Structures are given as C-alpha cells and as structure tokens.
C-alpha cells in the first residue's frame, strides 16, 4: 500500500503550488476578478508553457497521460488558490469531451490548441429543465443535406463567454429523456444564430447562457458517432466532478488553516478566541471533515484510474461526501471568523462561496447520494 | 389552554388585512414580491403611510404616538405584513433608538427626536460594534471626552447598516476611565451625521452590496445634551432594550411565507424529469425545517403569552434568535439547492426595477446564492449565536 505521489506527480504538485504561493496572491486574484477580463491571459500562457494544460490528456493525444490522480494533484492546488482561470471548463470539460468522442482528425486539430493555450472551448450541456439529468436534452439538431441545424438554449455554460468554440450536447434523434439520440457537435461561438449572454458567477468565474437559432454547421462537426454521446457525456461530467472534488479539498484545507490561525489572534473577552473549547471542537470537526473528504477523493481517483467500470459509483460517493464536508467547512469558517468573513474584502468568504458552488455543480450532494445507491 | 384569537383580535386582523390591501403601493409590493432591490425612498414612503394610519410605532406606548398594541396584536401585524409582502420597517429609528429615548431620555429629548422618528423624517443608524468589539461589545474603545458642554468623540464604529443614508447615529461610547469595569464606563450618545469629523466608508458584503459601513469619528464635537440618561449608564439602557427587542428576531412569519413559496416553486421545478416536489430527499428536508418552524412558532407564542401577562422576556428569548436564524439560513440554502445551475450566475442588476435586458434563470433563482451568502450574517449579528448559547448556559441553566 502506498499513498505517496510518484516523482513526476510530486514535481507537478510543487510546480503548481509554487505558482499559487508566489504568483497567485489574493490581491492579484481579486484585481483580475474585478477587471473586465474573465481571467489572466498571462497566467493561461504560463500554464501552457509549464505543461499543465496537457494533464487531462492521454499520451497518444500528446498529453501527460490523463490519469485521474494527476488531475487531482493539480486541482487540489488550484483549489488552494481559488483559481479563476478556466482550467476546469476548457481543459477538463470540453477537452475531455473531445478526447473521449472526437475522431483522430478532430483530436489532432483541437486538443493541440487546448494544450498550447491558443484555443478556448466550452461544453454546453445543461438546459433549464435538465437539472442534473444529462439525458434530458431538448436542444435539437436536424439534418438538412450535409448540414446540421441547431435550435435551443443551453444554461450556465462555464467559460461560455470566452470560448472560441462550443461543444454542444444536442438531440439528433429520439425523445426528451432518451439515452439514445444525443450527439456532441462543435459550433463556432460566433457562428450566425448563436446568441450569448455572458456574466460572472457568484464565485468569481465567468459563464454564459447560450441560445441557438437555426445555427447551421457541417454534419462533420459531430464528435464521434451521432446519437451515442451520452456515455461520453457521463464520463466527462464524472471526470469534471472529480476535478472539483479535489478543488474542494484544497479550498477546505486553506479555509480550515485560515480559521485556526485567525482564532489565535482574534481577542474577545480578554483572550484569544482559540481558547474557547466550544470553538476548538468545531475546528476539530472541520479538520475531520477535511480528512474524510481527502480520503474519499483519493479512493475515487484511484478507482477511476483502474478503468474497471466502477468509477461512476466511486465518484458519486466522493461527490456526495465531499459536498457535505464542503458545506460544513465553508459555513463554519465564516461563522467562526464572524462578521469579517461576510465581507467581500476577506478571502475566507470567497472560499466559502466556491465551496458552496461546488456542492451544486455537476450534481448536488443528494443527487450523488441517490446515484451511489442506484449503481 | 387556548390559542384562538378573541373576537376583538379577529376584528383587528381583518382591519390590518384591509389596510394592507388598500394602502400598500403596488410598485413597492411588486418589488418585495419579486425580490427586486428596495431603495431608501421605498422604505420611507411605506413608513410614512404607516405613520399616516398611526401604525408606525407598533411597539411604542400610546402616550408617545405609538399603537399601544398588545403582543398578540403585534404578532398579528407581523404575520399579515409577511403574507401581504410589505417591506420590512427599518428598525434603527422606530424600534431601536426610539424606545431608549422614550424610556430613558428627558422631556426635551423626547420632544426633539420622537416625532421625526415616528414620521420617518429622519433616518437613524446604529453605532454599537467596533472592529475589535464584536461579540465582546463591552470592550468598545470609541471615546467621548467631556470638554465643557460638549463631548469630543474619537473612534470607529462598524457594521453600520444603511449608514450611508443616515441623518443621525446612536452610539455607545466610552466616557469613563478605561480601568473602570468595562460596562460601567459607557454612555449612550446621539450624534448628527453632518457633524464635522465623521466619515462613512462602505463595506461590501459577500453579495457585493454596500449594505454596511464603517463610521469614523475624528474629534467629533457632540453637545452633552445629546447624551441619553446618566453618564456611564449607557450599557444598561442598551441592554434592557435589547432583551425586549429579541422577540421579533425569530422572523417566524417571514420564514413561513418563504417556506410556502419554496414548496410552491419545487412543485414546478424539474428534477431532471419529475418535479423536485416528488423527490423524497428534498421533501424530507422541507419537512424537517417545517416541523422545526412549527415548534419555534409555539415557542414564540409562549414567549408572547408570558410577556402579555407582564413578564419581561427572559434569557429564554435567546432560543428565538438561535432557532429563528438557523431556520432562515436553512431556507436560504434550500433556495440555492432548488436553483441548481442557476445558483451560479451573478447578475444582481436584473433585480433592479428598471432592468430590461434578458433575464437569466427563472424568478429569484439567480439571487438565491447572493441572499444565502449575505444572510450568513444572521447567526453572527445581534449577539452571535455562540453568545446566545452562552446566555442560555449561564443565565438559564446556571452553569
């Protein structure tokens, strides 16, 4: 039994953690969050130069190997810094979709661009009525000669504002809830008939709602086999869920650390509040939650790398358990800090925000508890 | 045992309903109903309507222009206001400083301040907390040094809600030597916000709103006649009134309405196929909070009954604060859960009354997270829930 990272993983971790510690300080992050730019283009170029954007991809696609453990190494560090750059949306979500579904040609042209940092992608899958059911797709794509004509509305497309191209889940056949008949189609974000309403998200990232009105694309823009994309979509969302689970663990570690340190300096009633046993026990509880979260994250990542088909159940276990931990650690870090953590100025509240959005992204805690039970 | 309303109380309820139906401006009600932003002018307009009816001072004695309502009448009033989506009454003037003035102020002060508070001509804010005096409020450091017939005030007050609108601030300040027992060196001072030396700087909260402020006092000269009651007795005044004010903090009526809206919304929100209201795990959570709220409603009624027979609400009222805020936050959280992906977008401008671009999400989905983030304050303010728990441990259980 060995829970230690390989030498390569240790190097990857130290490279990301050095960046977060030295170049991703809170003030610089907030400057970007409050600017017009969705994220720092300089950082993105740096990520490409350092090879981080190759992490989710297989060796045959030119990537680092695409192991789940590699992915959590990077994401945990990103979580520590509350990274706003669209690594999750572009590289993990859309990138994995292309890697899993794309033809050799499609992979060759697109994945290279993702890895060298020149191409921004977004995966548009959720709809207003779909909630977490990936099969619930109403956006339609009809064959007209050698073209596909797309109509519909996609909700909360992460990185949808910055994306050059959208990977869109569409229904090419069947009915609203059918597992069959869903395809992934590549659409230029500025194609005629594509309307985007961009916005920031409550955790400082960027997204868009996207409407398609008679958007015509070549039928060859379908990734892989038409009508058979649901399995791919499930794999992609599971992979992205693992990524945010790791992000949550990193964010919880920081929120806990900051809370413990704050109680050692905050004085009320003539003593530091760290001396109150009521608070000591609550921080001990936060620590236990963080440890349980880290354990189940590692379990799920190792299960995913085993490729024996048990990954979905393991992932749902992790997402459910980490969702509970993220809730407790996020809420308690704010409560123990007191009023100062409800302000925009202090970083702790922002860790709480991201820990909140992670609970509901790609399936809520309840959703994954039920999915775990059903698999 | 009987919790039915008397005939008089039922008549009163009908009168309240009639008043709310006919007198509440449609635009204000629409804002509350749809979670749109309310401005200072909305609050003032509504409070002036209440004043015209003679219902601005719901907890004031009749002799000062209040309603003189019984606690049951106040309970009916709060319930009906929640049901009919009336805006909340800004508490700082009408509910916080006014009782201190009419209970401990002199005749001159009553004449000078009370009519304008009742008529909402003057906007008040609260100067209690300081950056280093939160839960331990008595450790406050803002000083007021007597020079002739003036006090010279120096220090910083924080969490001053809507202080940017305020004409006056009521403050707890340190007038005694700092080696005196903390509470026995504090006075209650009323300060005109236009006095030279006062600066107000906004504090942005997690929902991006500049709801609270820091108020800085730099050699601010305040006439000694603006002190309420005796010098160094301010702590006692503030504390007595805080205990009396703790009943409505439970927010039962408002939580009931919000819970009803949540259930309604769940019945037409897709859970990927079936509606959320068909999900057992969702319904379990809704039932849990509904049951807790029922218990709290009766805890509140028992407190009201005790008050109406002449007993001041005791430290037991800390239960109302703790359970009430926990329930509010649970409802906040369930709203976030129901919003699903639409909890993510941050588009506060779409809740401005004059917004006319595309709406993202449906209804108030997109404000669920900002509201949840913002309202984490509820278990922190008004004596944090940890402090309330200490009160129960010490004052009720004698530990």
Largest interface: chains, residues each: A-B, 47 and 51 residues
The helix-strand sequence of chain B is HHHHHHEEEEEEEEHHHHEHH
Q: How many domain modules of chain A?
A: 3
Please tell me the overall pLDDT of chain B. 93
Sheet with the most strands: spatial strand order of chain B: 1-4-5-8
Distance between the termini of chain A: 27 Å
Parts with pLDDT < 50 across at least 5 consecutive residues of chain B: none
Helicity of chain B, as a percent range: 40-55%
Structural class of chain A: alpha+beta
Q: Whole-number radius of gyration of chain B?
A: 22 Å
Largest beta sheet of chain A, briefly? 4 strands, mixed
How many DSSP-defined strands of chain A?
10
Number of strands of chain B: 9
Number of domains of chain B: 3
Overall 3D geometry of chain B?
globular
Please give the count of helices of chain A: 11
Q: Please give the radius of gyration of chain A in angstroms.
A: 21 Å
**CATH homology superfamily name of the largest domain in chain A:** Butyryl-CoA Dehydrogenase, subunit A, domain 3
Based on the coordinates given, report the CATH architecture of the largest domain in chain A: Up-down Bundle
Explain what the structure shows:
- The complex is a heterodimer of chains A (375) and B (399).
- Chain A is an alpha+beta fold.
- In chain A, 51% of the residues lie in helices and 17% in strands.
- In chain A, a hairpin with a 2-residue loop joins strand 2 and strand 3.
- In chain A, helix 7 (230-265) packs antiparallel against helix 8.
- The relative contact order of chain A is 0.11.
- Chain B is α+β, with helices and mostly antiparallel strands and 399 residues long.
- Helices cover 44% and strands 13% of the residues of chain B.
- In chain B, strand 2 (143-147) and strand 3 (150-157) form a beta hairpin.
- The longest helix of chain B has 29 residues, at 280-308.
- The chains are: A alpha+beta (375), B alpha+beta (399).
- Chains A and B meet through strand 6, strand 9, helix 9, helix 10 and helix 11 of A and helix 10, strand 9, helix 11 and helix 12 of B.
- Strand 6 (194-201) of chain A pairs antiparallel with strand 9 of chain B, so a sheet runs across the interface.
